[in-house]
Amino acid sequence: MNKITILTRSKEPFDRVVPEGMSYLNYVSTFTTASEANTNIRKALDLIETPYMAIVDSDDDIPGFFPEPQKGIIYGDNRVRQNGIIEIRKNPEFSTDEFYKNPFMFHKAIVNVAELKVVMDAIGPQMPHSFYSFHYYFVAITMGAVYDPLFQPVWNKNPGSLWSKLDNGIMPGVKGIKAQQGEYLKKIVRYKKEIGYVNET
Fold first, then answer.
1. pLDDT in tens, 166-193
2. Exposed, middle or buried by CB within 10 Å (0-12, 13-18, 19+), for 157?
């Protein structure tokens, strides 16, 4: 059984070749806000049959290397392409403080599907700035995160795109997460008990 699904969201059907041993899902959808994007991600998760997934946008290249999935999050350094120039955004080892400094550290990361579904269901798509990296953050809190510098997902950063705008205005959302982290974690724990959830990945 394949372990990782490449998830590509697009307005029109989009086909691509993925590395051997990986699955591919094209989720056709549109969104204009981060909250709508998160809602679409949650719907797509129900169609994924592998234990892990990674979002690769239709205008991004598929990374040449994928590490063996483990824990809740596997992330590396981001290759950010803008105006034809590629910049390597180095990421640190995960900690709460490091995430607060760099909330994009999990952008394009590999994530445990079952855990992400529970986190999104427990706290919903509506969060400060609603960026899905905040949901990934809670997956890292509950299941752990692994940093692999050899994993370098591509972020084709287009001026005016939703994520580019959030890149410049996400810090107020970080303040909201810091202030409400305890409440979010309580919601996740409570929801897991309600549904009898056990992650068997």
1. 554 566 678 888 888 999 999 999 999 9
2. middle
If one counts the domains in the chain, the total is 1
DSSP letters along 84-145, please?
Answer: TEEEEE--PPP-HHHHHH-TTTTTT-EEEHHHHHHHHHHH-S-SGGG-HHHHHHHHHHHH-E
d(CA 26, CA 180): 34
Q: Which amino acid is at 82?
A: Q
pLDDT tens, position by position, 27-82: 998 877 777 888 889 999 999 999 999 999 888 889 989 999 999 999 999 988 88
For residue 50, the domain's CATH number is 3.90.550
Question: What is the Cα–Cα distance from 142 to 45, expressed in whole angstroms?
Answer: 18
Query: CB of 83 within 8 A of CB of 167?
Result: no
- CA 94 and chain centroid, separation: 14
Six token digits for residue 142? 């509950």
- Domain boundaries, position 39: 4-195
H/E run at residue 163: helix 162-169
